[in-house]
Amino acid sequence: MYEAQSEPLPARIHWLRLDDFRNYRHLEWPVGTRVSVLWGPNGSGKTNLLEAIVFAATGRSPRTSDDDDLVRFGEPQFRIAIRYSSDSGDLTPPTSLVVAHQRGARSLLWRNEKRTSRALVLGQIPIVYFSPDDLSLVKGGPALRRDYLDGLLAQCQPVYAASLAHYRRALAQRNWLLREIRRGLRAPDALSIWDEQLARHGSELMRRRAELAAALLPLAQQAYRRLSRQGEGADLVLRYRPDCLDPLSSRVDRDEHGWAHALWEALQQHRDDDIREGVTTVGPHRDDLLLELGGHAARTSASQGQQRTCALALRLAQREMLRQYLGRMPILLLDDVFSELDSTRRAGLWAALKEGGQVFLTTTEQAPWALQTDAQWFSVRDGELQPIAS
Which residue, 88, 102, 140, 247, could crosslink 92 as a Cys pair with Cβ 3.0–4.6 Å? Predict the structure, then answer.
C-alpha cells in the first residue's frame, strides 16, 4: 500500500510575502536556499514565519483556532502570498498562492490569480511541522496521537478525510440520540441505524490506521536510531491500539468486514453504558497509538531527552512517509528543535537534514557547530528579517 516512488521531487517555496500577519507589517522574502535558519531572541517573530507557511499550506494555524488572532494588532486583515513548486519540475513556472483574511470573515484564496477553495489547494504544498509542543505527542493523551495518524492519512489518501468526516457526523447523531433515549424521548432500537453507520465508516478508519502504523514503525525506528546514534532505534515500538479490541491484540490484519464486525459488537456490548452516559464510549474516536522505548511506555518511563527524540522521530518518519507516498519531498519546518537536544542528537539531526528537501528552522542559538553547515542564516528581530553573512 505504501510503496516508494523513484527519485522524488522536492517541494519548494521560492518566495514569501506577509502583510499585517502577526508582528509583520510587511515582509518580502525571496527564499534562495535549501536550508534557512531563522535566528533571534524569543518573541522576535521566528515562529510567526513558520506559522504563515503552515497556514498557507493547510488553512489552519498550529497555534490558534481563531484566524482573527493572526491579524496584526490594530489592522483589519492579513495577507500571505507564496510562490512554490512541488511536482511540476524545473520547466514549469512556480505556482502562486494568495491567502487573505479579514477580521470576522472567512479566508479567501487565489491560485495563479484565480479564486479557488481550500479543498483544491490542500496538499499542494506538502509540509511537516515540528514544534516544542510536539513533546505532547509522547507525553499527552491519545487525541494528539490520533490527530497525528489522521493528519498523515489525510495527506496521503484524500478518501480518508471523507471517511473521517462521515464517521464524525454519524458519531454526533448517535450521541444526540443517546441523550434523547436517556430522557425517555426515543426507544433504544433507534440506535441500530447509527450503529451500522459507525461500524461501516469506523472500520475504514481502523483498517487504514493499522496499515499506517505498521508502515511507520521501521521509518520511526530508523529516524530514532539516526538521531540518538546509539543503536537505540530498534527499542522504539509503535503499536496501533483500536479501542474496540484488547490492547494487546495483534489482530490488525482484518479485512474491512472484520473491522466492522468488531466495532459493531463493541457498540452492542456498551449500549447500556452509552445510554447511561449519553455519549458513545467505544470506537475509533478513542483509539491510541502506543509508543514504547525499551519495552516500557515512553509516556511515563522515558527521559525528557528520549521523549523529545521520539517526537522528532515521528515527524521525520512522517516526512519520509509523505516522500514515499506523494513522490516528492515535503518541506520541513522545525521550530526551536535544538533547545533540548544534546550534541549527539543535534549532529544526528543535521545529518538527516543533509539528505535533501527544503528546511526552515528557528533557533535562539548561534553556535559554531551550526555555522559550519551549508545553511543560510537570517536574523529575525521585531518583525524584520536580515541575512547573516557567512
Answer: 88
